[in-house]
């Protein structure tokens, strides 16, 4: 905006203001209606959804895979999309920082006089794409479920074992289907049933060969359920 | 804040600002400053005559009625619509968060050993405890939604452009701080989810360049996550960040009142279709409300640079109804 355009804008604005209405009561009225609406939504949300609590924090569990609040999903998904370790700082800090700086300095590089959205297509399309990207990443984050979840189809008789595997942190080292640690410390378990017989699987879980910890503490029943489940994977 | 402003009132000697070195020396009437002083004196006399009422006594000292008029009788431009309620709605949610937060803090113990139990007690035993905690929890989500919608409105309406660049910057900082509130508040209930999510967030911070590791150490209060970490997050969540947000909202609002809210960009003051303001001046259409007849030489298009025109225009700011209590007549 050059000096003339600035003046034009301010003159135009002054006129619009002259033709406008007083803040009180007209704008206040709209604001108040909005307040009531927001308060109603909030009270409803609180009454319907309440405020549940998870289990108490336990710093000794190393297997709990956390999920952030939904409004951080888009950052979280960025992390999942960018897999290679040397690029992780780019995802966690690089991209968000660059976006933040670009956002902060917006009025200093977008200095054109045009304000109507459809007459400044570059800004509007970029903004629209950012909105879509954030919405998509948030959706992905919401749809992905907890990282300790196993989406591989399971026959109902193995459901118990599947849950124990999901909750015991096996996926911190192993991959099962799309979930878990691909290229992690332990072998991929997606087709373990075809490679290792059930008794050997059970023994491995109980003993913990090599660097794998022993899961003897699960108890005989759970060990059997886990072994049944893993042996069924093919 | 002096802006290179056009002639809201045309540069006539009568309206010249007394402080302006470029203003004509001989003035035909009382200067703006004199008028202002006269009005203030009158107001003081008036309230003095009003006598012993407490309201009058206070008003005489703080000029509350002036501020009140400046805030409430200011005009919002033509075309203002429902999109313009998003900002105040965000502020409303922030106020709700502050109030529910105070009540939560009455029951909360910021210690690693007792935090979970205190929240469990609040949720399960205290009258309306879960409701208030629900308000606070879901209020955070609503505030994020509203503040992003408010920013989207500002972006797509081009409202961040001259002269409101600074207010955009403040707004972006407010968004970041709101996210920080979400992050720091998440840990406080101290359940598994919040604990491990916070560890991850902290590791992400640590992976940042240069300051990252130091910032992470500061947040953790040491190289490892400890009991002090919780108090640190608690202090940030309920003292430092909300204080900063409150102050910045104040600055944000000050600029809103000072500069005025924008009109939707497609709304135009009535004028021949397609005509640009400069052409209109050439055609003799009055573009600015003026005390006197339009002098063609006051139009900026005719040679006078923006600075020159601003000097001539003297005192104008986009909105004379500033917090100093002076209201555009």
Describe the structure.
The complex is a heterodimer of chains A (234) and B (329). Chain A contains ten helices and three strands; from the N terminus they run αβααααααββααα. Chain A has a two-stranded antiparallel ribbon. Helices cover 57% and strands 3% of the residues of chain A. Chain A has helices at 3-18, 23-49, 73-81, 88-104, 106-109, 121-144, 159-167, 192-195, 198-207, 220-232; strands at residues 21-22, 175-176, 179-180. Among the domains of chain A are: 62-147, Helix Hairpins (Orthogonal Bundle), CATH 1.10.287; 156-232, Cytochrome c-like domain (Cytochrome Bc1 Complex, Chain D, domain 2), CATH 1.10.760. Chain A is mainly alpha-helical. Chain B has 329 residues and is mainly α. Chain B has two domains: 7-73, no CATH class; 82-259, Cytochrome Bc1 Complex, Chain C (Up-down Bundle), CATH 1.20.810.10. Chain B has twelve helices and one strand. In chain B, helix 6 (129-156) packs antiparallel against helix 7 (165-187) and helix 8 packs antiparallel against helix 9. The radius of gyration of chain B is 27 Å and the shape is globular. The model of chain B is unreliable at 5-27 and 279-329 (pLDDT under 50). Chains A and B meet through helix 1, strand 1, helix 2, helix 4 and helix 5 of A and strand 1, helix 4, helix 5, helix 6 and helix 7 of B. Strand 1 (21-22) of chain A pairs antiparallel with strand 1 of chain B, so a sheet runs across the interface.
Layout of helices and strands, plus pairs?
The complex is a heterodimer of chains A (234) and B (329).
Chain A: H1 3-18, E1 21-22, H2 23-49, H3 73-81, H4 88-104, H5 106-109, H6 121-144, H7 159-167, E2 175-176, E3 179-180, H8 192-195, H9 198-207, H10 220-232
Antiparallel strand pairs in A: 2-3
Chain B: H1 32-50, H2 54-62, H3 64-72, E1 75-76, H4 86-105, H5 115-124, H6 129-156, H7 165-187, H8 192-206, H9 212-220, H10 227-259, H11 277-282, H12 306-313
Helix pairs in contact in B: 1-2, 4-6, 6-7, 7-8, 7-10, 8-9
